[in-house]
Every structure is written in structure tokens, then in C-alpha cells.
Amino acid sequence: MDKTQAIKIRRLLRALDRALLKVSPAIFELDKQEQQRLGEPLWDFGSRLHFEMLEFIYTQHPELRPPPVPPTICSDLRWKDVKLPKSMSEADLDAIIFSMLTSRRQKAAMVIGKAVTHCREHNLPINDEIFGARIEELAESGRVEAFGDLRLWGHSEVKLND
User: Fold this and answer.
1) Does the pLDDT value for residue 27 go beyond 90?
2) Which of 73, 98, 111, 147 could form a disulfide with 157 if both were Cys (CB 3.0 to 4.6 A apart)?
3) What gap in Å lies between CA 105 and CA 128, rounded to an integer?
4) Cβ pair 18, 12 in contact under 8 A
5) Segment 86-99 mean pLDDT
6) What integer pLDDT is reported at residue 141 of this predicted model?
7) How many alpha carbons lie under 13 Å from residue 89 in its C-beta half-sphere?
8) What strands, in cross-sheet order, belong to the sheet with 106-107?
9) Residue 107: beta bridge partners?
């Protein structure tokens, strides 16, 4: 593939990626079974788009690869500093987090986002920083498996222990 073709295909694939990002919030509004039926194929497609299709283009034309996004700490909140509302317990929070995890790696940002969406839907006063701190605590205690610095939600992953 020549550079002109690569530029055209990359532009179209990136437009597709932006469209996929718009679909995700709508899928998370569905019930759990519908989320799985639509969300998992969407996640798989997004992964293939980035790690196979675009990577194929970047391997042939490295100059088309976008510059890396610098990692940014999303939160420094530690679990020991969290004050849960009286209506919520650690066990409640853990149940929400574990319901979002799978045996497959997921970005910490995705797990936190799904957990916050769940809380909004159920009028629970828990924010993203609290979930981030709890996931870090679960990883440090060995209850979940973590990959990367969990303060960098978009650059780290979590999964259920094997």
C-alpha cells in the first residue's frame, strides 16, 4: 500500500473509531445481558481496529503514527483517605467492581466508568476517584490482578484473578 492509500484508509478508520466511541455510552444504558451481547463485540472490534488494522498501516508507514499521549495521573486518592457514605459499605463497592470485571484485561478507565454509570443509574453517591482508590486497594491486597500504574486509568488494566 502506498502512502496516499494508507493516509486515506487511516482517516476512514479513525472516523470509524470516533463513531465507536459515540456508541459506547448508549450500550452502557442497556441491561447487563444486552450490554454483553453488544459491548463485547464492540470492544473486540475496537481492539482489532487499533491493534491490527491501524497497526498494519503504522508498520508500513511509521511516519503516520500519531504521537503518544502522555500518561496523566487521574487521581491520587488512597483508599485509607476515603470516607464512604453511610448508605454504602466496602462490600457494596466491591460487589459493583467485581460485577464489572472479567477474566480478560480491561482498561481501568472502562471499569471505573461502568461502575460510575451503575451508581448514577441507582442514585448511589460514589464517584470515579473512590472507585479508582478501591480498585488500587483490591489490587494491592491481591484480590484482583492489575497491569500498570492504576493511578493512570487509561494506561492500566485490571482483571479477575485466574
Assistant:
1) no
2) 147
3) 19
4) no
5) 95
6) 97
7) 3
8) 106-107, 157-160, 144-147
9) 157
Q: Which residue has the higher pLDDT, 139 or 27?
A: 139
What is the CA angle 157-104-136, rounded to 5?
Answer: 35
pLDDT at 136: 97
Distance of alpha carbon 4 from alpha carbon 124, whole angstroms: 51
Helix (H/G/I), strand (E/B), else coil: 146: strand
- The mean per-residue pLDDT over the stretch 17-31 comes to 85
d(C-alpha 138, C-alpha 135), whole Å: 5
DSSP secondary structure letters along 11-57: HHHHHHHHHHHHHHHHHHTS-HHHHHHHHHHHHHHHHHIIIIIIHHH
CA distance 73 to 137: 16
Amino acid identity for residue 20 in this structure = L
